[in-house]
Known about the structure:
This protein is of the alpha/beta class and about 525 residues long.
Amino acid sequence: MERGFHEIVLTSEAAIASDTLGSSLVGFISALPESVLGDTLAKMIFKVGSYPDGTVKRAPYGLSKVEAKLKSLGFDAAIVSPYELKKSLGPGTKLVGIYTMDGMGYSYGSGITYWMLKLAGIKYSGLPFIAKSFRNVLETLNVSPYRNNFKVIVGGPASWQVYDSGLRKELGVDYVFEGEFEKDGPAFIRGILQGQKMPEMFYARPAGIEDIIPIETPSNGGLVEVTRGCGRGCAFCTPNLSGMIRSIPFEIIQKEIEVNILMGKLKDINLHSEEYFRYGANGIDPNPEKVLKLTEIAYKTVKKYGKENTISTDFTTAAVVVQNPNLVKKVAEYINEGGRKTFIEMGIETGSPKLIERYMKGKALPYRPVQYPDVVVQAIGTLNDNNWFVVGTMILNFPDETDEDIMANLELLDRLKDLKVVTFPLPLVPVAAFRKKGFTALDEMLEDPLRREFILKALVKAFDSLKETTKMVVDNVSNPLVRMLMYRFGLFSLEIIKKKYEGQLSMVERQYNDVIPNEMA
Ligand code: SF4
């Protein structure tokens, strides 16, 4: 085996490094804990394609961006597989950068997985696989004979978790980098390489469009960023920290599509954005001309390399859909051509206008918070009519949340019952609570009958919808036998687990019926 020595070695937790058998949606499995996802199964699912020197064939998008920027400035950097990390380290390695999406397991995804298993009566113990795979990377680094030669820096959307956990030093992490890389990252890295004293926790400024360059290593899931930031200003959101929406120029997008198709051998290009229908916008209002031009360019570019190639996108708000349903229809003619069905995520967050007003007023704009529940229902209907299946998240445990807010969530859920939407209830857990109580912080929410009822109802609806979409979830799995097995197993387990939730729900309803007559007596 060749040994790859680079001054800067970039890697990530295996859960994120992997393209999960060709389907990024299968990647949600990474939130399962050790008691459910054993080592053998995890290794089969979270494979990482690499070359003999340990460098990867495809990488998480954010890491490809970091690599491209560093290389463009003359740094010696390479992305290596977490499984090949040992042989990629050498006496010349000066810095190892780890990209993390949920290194400590504090994310919403880990939280909802805890609820799902607990409510289905499945034992939850150990770390979520994603967090375990982050620890594995650190262990490999910490026992390396070259450990004293290099510094370890953690970046990516969940880098804050490492700092806030208070475990940074214990884990062997020298620096935590938060924010976008392109503007301040290179100088930060240069400072470390030159032996300067740099801050242990560094907050980078958002990049300007002129700082952003195309990726060289293809990205997992065929991701190509088309906008950055969002500008709606929700209080609890990371993309919000990036400030106003910035639209990536067509030339960069086109180049990245080609890298993914030609080098990455990917067939579906995911035009990633927090709000696809606001590409090219200067404020809240969409710019339909720009969105359509982008869609056409992307569509023509993928088709140039194969009739079967497709484009997708991943996120929208409800408001922008209601603002311009005609734009949604026109874009669907490209993305969902010929009746193809795809997923799109929408942060519904809450059915309570009061919470919208307090924490995410911008999410409803140009509509008023009081209109928000209607906007959500209308938007999901429009997306469904245009062959999008919506994955809608709803957050619990906002500060000062009252029973009235949960009642508003239940009402909204009821209005969504005939729509094609996977409703995921997500827990907002302050890190301090996680540090003190771990996942038991989530038990407190389950102990409250009203919240328990909402979580169960949302999960029943989610599992019902997922049964309809299992085929879409496994569609991109490259091996046909594995695809078929995952499809059958997926359907079977969804049905069994859904029945358990329904059983729990009738228990909650029985408790209500018992309590109400007693109280009235
Ligand atoms: S609309 Fe979505 S991406 Fe934008 S700030 Fe709010 S939660 Fe974040």
